[in-house]
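Hey, I'm writing a tutorial for new members on how sequence and structure tokens pair up, and I'd like a real worked example in the thread rather than a made-up one. If someone can provide the structure for the chain below, I'll link this post from the tutorial.
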Amino acid sequence: MKLVILGAHGRIARLVTDRILAEPAFRNVTLTLFLRNAHRLAQLEQNPRVTVVDGDITDQAALTTALQGADLVFLATVDSRPGNAVTHTVIAAMHAAGVSRLIASSSIGINHEGPNQAFIDWNQQMIGPSLAGMHAADQLLRASDLDYTTTRFAWLNDRDNRDYVVNRESEPFAGGSGSRQSMADVILKIVADPTLYVRETIGISDPATRDAGSMVY
């Protein structure tokens, strides 16, 4: 399998990369790591399973070239900007390269959801302007013919655990926060079985963080 990670220097992207290269279960996965300032991942350039590409995600020609032969694409960058240039370009490049399977990063709250109303109100106050762009990005994927999964990450923390619940869109979030390790673990489950969560918008959170006082960011 060839996995392309767009925005490959992000912290969750690097957790995914490290586990793919370290764990026997992923020994047949090769990686194309696409990012600006690719020298930041120079330590991986000698790995025979890794191709590092310097580029801008909104450069459709560069992206189309990087996606050639891909089986799965992980968009590790959250598209929250008005106009959704990133999502538009990714969809167009995937069509041009003949690739259909996409995992896209997003956030809790894009549909005014959360573990409880107090959290929903607080989340809207904190990141409301960005939520509209993320919601629009998810809508673009729904309207496309791609086999997408939108992963709505809860507020991220650096707890050393993989304690999480995956909620379908019709379900409330189990919690308000979750570890980056947990988010990466869900991505890796989809890498291991790309039939999971096809054309779904899922939520990932730690149920221990349902109450605001227990959340760690």
